[in-house]
Design goal:
binds ligand 9Z3; 8-stranded mixed sheet; about 20% strand; CoaB-like_sf; alpha/beta; 14 strands
Length: about 350
Amino acid sequence: MPNAAPIIHTSAPETDQAIDRTVPDFPVAQSSDEDNYFQTNTAPQYLDELRKETSEFIRFHQATGKKVVLVTSGGTTVPLENNTVRFIDNFSAGTRGATSAEYFLESGYAVIFLHREFSLLPYSRHYSHTTNCFLDYMAEIDGKIEINPKYSKSMLEIYQKYQHARDQNLLLVLPFTTVNQYLFSLKVISKELHQLQTKALFYLAAAVSDFFLPMSKLPEHKIQAQDHNGGKLVVNLDPVPKFLRRLVDSWAPGAMITSFKLETDENILLKKANQALDRYCHQLVIGNLLQTRKKEIVFVKKEGEHPVVWYRLTDEELANGVEIESLIIPNVIKEHEEWIRLHK
Ligand code: 9Z3
C-alpha cells in the first residue's frame, strides 16, 4: 500500500556494492544470455524483503480466492556510474500502469503494483502530478485548513476506493528505479505468482529500457570529462536480455501474460507486436504509439477469431475525461477468464 512508511526504497544507489576496478580481468557480462544476467549483475539488497512481502500478499489472496495481477509501471533508469550521478531514462510517468491498477481493483483483482519509485500511484495519481500543487486542493475555512469544497465530492469518491483497497489488503506497492532492480524484482515476483497458476495475470506496462550498462562495465565513480577523448563521452550499451522468454517458459508458466509494445512509427507497430508474440509465445500484446497512447491501442493475439482488435476513444470522450484503460481492462479480463476456462 502507499502507506506512510514504505520499507523498500530504490532511488539511492547501493554504493557499497561498487566493484573494485583495480582487480584485473573482471569478467565481462554476456548480457545476451538471460540466465547469465542474474549471475553477472548484483541483486538489490532489499530483494529478500520484496520476496517476503510478495509471498505474504499472495498467500493472503490464495485464501480470499481473488485473481492477482502484476502491473508494472513507469520508466527504468540505466545508471552510467555506480555512485550514480548520471543515468539514461525514458519518458514514462506511469499513467498507464497507475490507471490500469485502479480498474483492476474495481474489477475484483488484487494488484501487485511494481512501479518506478515516485512515478504515478493508483488513486493518488489524481492529485500528485497534476499542474495543481496539492495545496491548491485546500482552502482556509474559518481559520482551519480543509479540502476545497469544489474538490471534496470527487476526492471523497477516490478516497473511499483507496481506503477500501487498503482495508482489504488488495494493493501491494513495490518500487524499482533501475532496470537491474526491475529485472530482479520481476523474476522474484513471477516465481511467487507461479503458485497461483492460471489465476495469475501479468500486465507489463513499464517502459523497460532495451539497453543497459552491465555491472562489469560500470565505472565506480563519476565519469570525469578529461578522461575522455576531447571531452566526449561515448556510451556503449549492451542489449537488455529478453526476459519475457524466461517469464513465459520457466518463471510463471500457467499464468496469462500481457505485454505492451511501444513504437513511434505506426507502420511497424503491428509487425513488432506480432514479432513479440512469435518470439516469446505469450498470450497478448497490447500495441500503442507514443503519440496516441491515451486515445487508441491495439490487442494482438496469436489465435482466435479476431487476432487484431483496435480500441479507440472519440475526441469527445477524451475531452470528457474518459480513460482508455476503461476499455483495455475489461477486455484483458475477458481474455484472462477465457485463459482460466481453457486451462481448467
Ligand atoms: C507501454 O507501451 C505503455 O503503454 C507506455 C505508457 C509506457 C507507453 P505512460 O507511462 O506510457 O502512461 O506515459 N509500455 C511498454 C513499453 C515497453 O518497454 N515494452 C517493451 C517493448 O516495447 C516490451 S516489455 O519492447
